[in-house]
Amino acid sequence: MTALKPILNHIDNIPSNAGKFKPEKSSVYYIHHRLRFQTSSPKSLLWWIVFLSLILMLFFLSPTSTTAPLRRFRTTTSPSSALSKWKTEIELSAKPRSRRGHTVLVTGAVGFVGAHASVALKRRGDGVVGLDNFNRYYDVALKNSRKSELLDRAGVFVVKGDINDDVLLRELFGLVHFTHVLHLAAQAGVRYAMVNPNSYIKSNIDGFVNLLEVVKSTIAPPAIVWASSSSVYGLNSKVPFSEKDRTDQPASLYAATKKAGEAIAHAYNHIHGLSITGLRFFTVYGPWGRPDMAYFFFTKDILNRKQISIFEGANHGTVARDFTYIDDVVKGCLSAIDSAKKSVGRNGRKKKGEAQFRIINLGNTSPVSVHKLVMTLEKLLKVKAKKKVVLMPRNGDVPLTHADISLARMELGYKPTVDLEMGLKKFVQWYLEYYDARKKSSW
Ligand SMILES: O=C(O)[C@H]1O[C@H](OP(=O)(O)OP(=O)(O)OC[C@H]2O[C@@H](n3ccc(=O)[nH]c3=O)[C@H](O)[C@@H]2O)[C@H](O)[C@@H](O)[C@@H]1O
């Protein structure tokens, strides 16, 4: 294993900036030197064959390997024909129906908002390519279902890959001239940051920077629209939350990484002339939603007669969220794409003028308490919940979110139309159908 170390280190240490990649002289020399030195006896020759096969196996199976585009083609067909099929599918999916249509790369395409937004873009005639790493933060079967039942049906091709894989990103941007990137790939969830803090840094900071690095060095960089979060308002107590309010008191690491994302976006806008719009989503919910969110697991637990915890603030203070229905958020994303101005920098060179930079709230602007959320679910599910009221733990949550959406109205013509009762009705209908069908198919 010590002999493997230099090579494994080399694979793990691929720099995030493509173009800077050079094989490390020392490790190549080391292997070469050891090979020459040790192949003198037949026994050591055998060991070296085993050793080299091991390395090759590790190299091709490693999830972060730079051979990502090639690894996809361990199929029955030859690698080159599978590669050209992959490229053709991407090009086909990227093609807008009309000359005025956009060509959008959607990161996090099998995620909740990503899947809905990709389908909406494709349906109205834009070209769409999805990118997603299908990670295991929550049920991968649900992600696969979003792919097969929503994206495949709409004709959106999804590349399986990570935003940290700059080789793959460069390949995609080399293949397709994207006019826009809808960047939704992220580590979501406020409370999970207590369990796995590094995943937030890896996706929301490293991944975002990697994407921006690749985008900024393309010949004609696309405009970027990306998902920030209402959580950046943190301990801000002035309501409703306006984009002008302070956002320097995050209550979770998740919020801190989203706030950092906004600062990073500003730097790339300022230096490289990238057109960037950050959308602060407010507790988005609806069909095909995220199982880690309260409305989703409350539904599951209520149906399973399992106790649920309802958070309340100090002195029995109400905890409430500005729950925003998925269709309203998707409309906001599409308007943000349509109203985005072009980036002004190119080829990584400095900008020639000011590029557009926006941060916009996408909320519902009518907060509802968690108690009311549960009562609505009880009514829709026709099951009484086993409730336990507990003091909101200090692990990322804030007592209240409430969006001021006047900027969204002005910039995007945004107008949310679905209230929590109507939205939950649609969610519950989907939930029962989806899990019922799965139960039946497993019988
Ligand atoms: O809008 C946002 O910025 C964020 O919205 C959600 O975060 P959150 O609003 O905390 O949504 P949930 O985790 O679904 O919680 C909803 C409400 O239920 C409460 N809750 C949660 C869990 C629980 O066991 N009991 C409970 O009362 C929370 O305090 C909160 O008020 C998402 O999970 C984040 O990814 C997103 O960025």
TrEMBL record:
Reactions that this protein is recorded to catalyse: UDP-alpha-D-glucuronate = UDP-alpha-D-galacturonate
Signal peptide span: none
InterPro entries in UniProt: Epimerase_deHydtase, NAD(P)-bd_dom_sf
Entry membrane topology: Multi-pass membrane protein
Protein location: Golgi apparatus, Golgi stack membrane
A single MF term (Gene Ontology): UDP-glucuronate 4-epimerase activity
Source taxon at top rank: Eukaryota
Chain ranges passing through the membrane: 45-64
Protein keywords: Isomerase, Membrane, NAD, Transmembrane, Transmembrane helix
Any one Gene Ontology cellular component term annotated for this protein: Golgi cisterna membrane
NAD-dependent epimerase/dehydratase domain residues: 104-341
EC number: 5.1.3.6
Pfam family, one: Epimerase
PANTHER family, per the entry: EPIMERASE-RELATED
Subunit structure, interactors included: Homodimer.
Family: Belongs to the NAD(P)-dependent epimerase/dehydratase family.
Protein name: UDP-glucuronate 4-epimerase
Source organism per UniProt: Deinandra increscens subsp. villosa
